[in-house]
Amino acid sequence: MEEDYAVPPDFKYSPHIWRDFSLKTFSYFLLLCYPAFLLLKSQASAGLRLFLAIPLVACAWMLARYEKYGQGLDRMLFNWACFRISPRSFRQFSSGSGRKAPSTRDLLPIGRLEPDMVELAGGTAIKILRVSSLNFGLLSEQEKRSTEKAFRGLCHSLSRGFPVQVFMRSRKITREDIISGLERPHAGAGYEKAQRQYIEFLRGLAEEGNVHQKEFFLVISYNIYSLPARKYRATDYLDTAKGLLSQRGKEVKIKDAREQLKMREEIIRSGLKRCGIEAETLDRAGIAQLLYEVLNPDLEGDLSRRQDIRPFLAQGIGEGNLAEVVAPPSVELAPGHIRVGKLYIRILAIMEWPACLWSGWVQDLNDLADDMDISIHISPRDMGSDMRYIAASLRKMHGATMADKLGNMPTDQLTEVKKEKTEKLMRSFASGEEKLFDYLCLLAVKAYSTEELEEKTEMVVSKMAAREITVDVPRHLAKDAFLSYVPLGLIALPFTRGFTSSLIGASFPLSSTDMSSGGGVLYGTSEDGSSLVMLDRFAPQMPNHSMAIVGQSGQGKSFFAKALLTRELARGVSVVCIDPEREYRAMCEALGGQYIAFEPRSGHSINPLDRSFRLEDSSLSGTDNLVRENMIFLKLILADAKMDYRPLEAEDLLYEVYRRYERPLLADLKEVAAEMGLQDIHHALRPWTEGTLRGLFDRETNVDLSSPFVAFDLSGIKREHRGLAIAVIDGWFWRKIRDDRTMRIFQVDEASWLLRDYECAEAFENLARRGRKYGVSFVIIDQQLDQLFANDKSRAIVSNCAIKCLFGMDKGLIDNYVSKAITLTEREQEMMATLTKGECIIHAGVQRALTRVVASREETRLFSTSLGEAV
Questions:
Q1: For the chain, which domains are there?
Q2: Is residue 254 pLDDT above 70, yes or no?
Q3: Residue 91 or residue 256, greater confidence
């Protein structure tokens, strides 16, 4: 166990959780009492005035200097100011009698909803970020240390009064959620049938298993009415009280809060970026939707009772209205739990910690239960008062040690160990290497009955006890625990523990085995089957839309690729597939697509000179575009015939052909070349119009190139003619995507078979590099890894892909080829050598997940592979 991750001794510091609230609420107190004092000043005697002034001064001194003496009064004032309930009703409500609240919105300290922040009733403004996560199980030890160090640096940059809350939400995937991203399929019985089968398969997965999705949020808070960070004076309280009453003062404070939150957001984003985490700020709709779903957890599985928050936003949510919209229908408090609607929620707080914590312990905590939420509060402490308290503790321990020595008593070893740790901690604080934080970790267990709640609680407590972590239920603080759990940035429980910066780094919370971009198609399930891996390759957060699927033969690559194509077609994405081994014919015909075989006797023909391929949105005329693109076609034909290519002659020839013929063919091109005396071009075209290659490009186009699924079979064409076929396909595809920019997939199977040719490699590299601007996802699939990664262009294509699906392969291939093009951790290299059929490691941006491929019976029958039969 690393020494840096040792939990520091608990010095029983007085919690500082009420300081900011005490200053504000005490200003209310002064505001009410000061006019009465002024009224009596002129009439009352000096003794009476002194009698009235002494309690005010004493209360101010206690609340400002010693929070532990003023917590009772401050707590009552805080609840009165924030929750707008009387002290009497508060006592009844928090007594654990099980009575229902008079109004559920009175429980929520939610005030006005701004465009990108929420003003709480207690004078705090919050901003919520949706953040991604990392899979610590697939990181090497060095990468784990680097991530923890970056997160430690992020927390080290936080100043006092800059708390953050990490909210890890586990949301059950319902049937409606899993198919919500599907659009209408393409016209055709095959595509509609594929979509129906895909939807039924997804619904079956949601019904059969307890599938959950992990979501991570980070709450940044700022106290609008906080006092300056210096020694408080009596005028500070009066100025704060005046600001609370003045409308102009409120507007100035809110504007300042917005600027402060923006600055804090930039600090958080910069720190998260160094950790490899992406962040997205929630807007009004996102904040309202999140709060509604968290505060109404019993409605997750009932779509008829769930509501979209956007209609309420359209009407305009002002101060007080948001609480009415997001408040649960009913809330009932009882000792140890809170009932929201039909769901029982119990908040568990970590009370005692082991001597040392291990790296990635939060991910282990997150995997304890699929339906458990976790809320972590990190708040920097006042190092001045803490160091004074530590120094006093050291003096006491030194005094006890000296007393033992003078009295010839044996030294207390526990005191010596605690003294050594405290001295080391003091030196790290004095040098600035470490800071101290208030750390609070809450676990939310949910159930639909008290028996189930007790069973789940016992399971979590026993698993935590096995890790030497003690959790307990704050039975008489159920409401405070619930408010601390909700993503509002509030700490209403006095159970914080002092954590150093190193320990905060080891407690990196944004780690999970899940992978989901919130839409897209199904890639498989996680390793334990508790979550679905669903990705949208066209999502805006993806750096590009390209994908690489690599692995040795027999690992399930083709089955996986066909399944993805079918699911993408089911949601309305068009597909073009290069099939060198005639593997996609049955699939294409079953879906009603267009399968084109490039061989003379197939009956399929594409006329590269067809005018229907011209570009409507280009600055050039249609003829100019056709001439420019067919010059490449002529160049390849001349190269195949071992003849010289002269651009000016080719350009003049093409212009003359388009001047004479409305729908020219290769025979017309050959005839005009003979008339113009271009014998080289005339002889080079003869095999394509009269010889063995006749029928490929010398007839009118007789295939449906507008079909949503077009597959080109290159198995019947010679190797020396691959480049020419790819040039025709590439030219047609570029014309198509420029005319109609919709989501499309260009998939190349057995890529190394084609990338040996320079023309093919150039075309594929250009498409992979520029296709993103036109909404194209370039997919490369291959099993000959030594040839694929030996080619510089193919290696660059694979390295640039945003999504990489890595199936099983030999250790030698990983070390010699794959690891040089794809960044792999040591753990991933070990796992890839032991992956079984149907398992793969997926890289999607910064996310990584070990995935097991799953498919429906219809997909298995359609693809007919050994993997499909196994599934």
A1: 3-174+212-381+435-506 (no CATH), 390-430 (no CATH), 545-604+703-803 (3.40.50.300), 606-700 (no CATH)
A2: yes
A3: 256
